[in-house]
Amino acid sequence: xxxxxxxxxxxxxxxxxxxxxxxxxxxxxxxxxxxxxxxxxxxxxxxxxxxxxxxxxxxxxxxxxxxxx
Length: 69
Fold this sequence. Notes:
The protein is mainly α. The chain is built from four helices and no strands. The chain is 64% helix and 0% strand.
């Protein structure tokens, strides 16, 4: 997308992060969160809500919440 299409925006990153989290790919999710932050974007309410839910049921650890702040 960065090479051939429009640049990703906040919505693009959030959609990709949510998809990776749903698939259980924590590594890709963390990399996307870091990339998103380095580009000046932040997680939206739905992404943060999903991270909270996954923290609550034990699928993620607190480091994901720290990354979104």
